[in-house]
Amino acid sequence: MESVIRLDRLVKAYGPRRGVVDLSLEVHAGEVFGYLGPNGAGKSTTIRLLVDLIRPTGGSIRVLGGDPRAGGTVLRARIGYLPGDFVVGARQRVGEYLTFLAGLRGGAGQARIGELAERLDLDLTARVGTLSKGNRQKVGLVQAFMHEPDLLILDEPTSGLDPVVQQTFLSMVAEAKAAGQTVFMSSHILSEVEQVADRVAIIRDGALVTVDSVVNLRARAVRRVQVTFATPVPVSEFAGLPGVDSVTVDGPVLRCRVTGSPDALIKTAAQHSIVDLLSDEPALEELFLAYYEGRDHVAA
Asked: Where's the ABC transporter domain (predicted)?
């Protein structure tokens, strides 16, 4: 498959501290690629290297077939970039700023500014300095998407967005993929990555832990589940179920952890009268630990 991003033994050192270490991965044309890791793992460092905001200490980077350092404006015109700390001049009006950016790109994206602003509920007449964090993030999304780039590089793109706008963003990503665009996005939110990504990379301490499919990612996801029944249930019915552990029963309330598919738990619970069911967002930290421990076990 055609490579849109190729990193080969990439290293970025900050004096004695390393941002990324021997990082090698490949992103294919037309896929949505999720990039996961805890704070300080090296996600933003990787992204800044991709767009040539910082330079590597070692290894090589190819983006859209070119070197980010040598590609210049021709290469950058094919990329939509949203940094994790999106900042813009406070005195400009939103519409003026976006029109200015379109002008720098030869008018590319001008026609889509109004459409994207309407979808994201963004006021084009507001001054940027008056915007909340979430509305500034919307401005960043519009400027990244509006010129329909071949590659979207998005660093924590839903930061500050309310749940409704998050869903609009995910629809925009799905549409970009359907149009043949490639999306590389970092995130702390497992559910959004699950919804749109084809593959996911997990990074820790600047080193790649794994690249895996979303199907396998979901199989390792851990959820905390609470089921309230109409009458008390015996703990023995649930304690030995596949993928279910940490089971406790307090009268009619059952609490447990579920790894992967909840199918066995749901089928067993359905044999009783259920009053309520709560399932927490999959714990990203526990997912990381599952991969880390697996890697450490193999390394041992």
From this structure: 5-230
Task: Report which DSSP code applies to 228.
Answer: E
**Residue 270 corresponds to which tokens in the numbers above?**
């359905």
Residue 220's H or E segment, with its range, is helix 214-220
Does the model's pTM come out above 0.90? no
Can you spell out the DSSP letters for 112-143?
A: GHHHHHHHTT--TTSBGGG--HHHHHHHHHHH
User: Domains in the chain, ordered, with CATH?
Assistant: 3-216 (3.40.50.300), 222-281 (3.30.70)
Whether the Cβ atoms of residue 254 and residue 233 lie closer than 8 Å to each other = yes
β-partners of residue 213 are 199
Q: Is the separation of the CB atoms in 245 and 211 below 8 Å? A: no
Please tell me the distance from the alpha carbon of residue 139 to that of residue 97, in angstroms, as a whole number: 9
Structure confidence at residue 220 (pLDDT): 75
Q: What is the pLDDT of residue 298?
A: 36
Strands 3-14 and 79-82: unpaired
**How far apart are alpha carbons 193 and 32 in whole angstroms?**
9
Q: How many whole angstroms separate alpha carbon 137 and alpha carbon 251?
A: 46
Neighbour count for residue 270 (Cβ, 10 Å): 9
Return the closest-CA partner of residue 127 out of 75, 164, 154, 89. 89
CA 53 to CA 150: how far, in whole Å?
Answer: 19
Classify residue 5 as exposed, middle or buried by CB count within 10 Å of its CB (0-12, 13-18, 19+). Answer: buried
3-state SS class at 277:
strand
- Cα–Cα distance between 274 and 251 in angstroms, integer? 13
CB 115 within 8 A of CB 169: no
d(CA 109, CA 121): 18
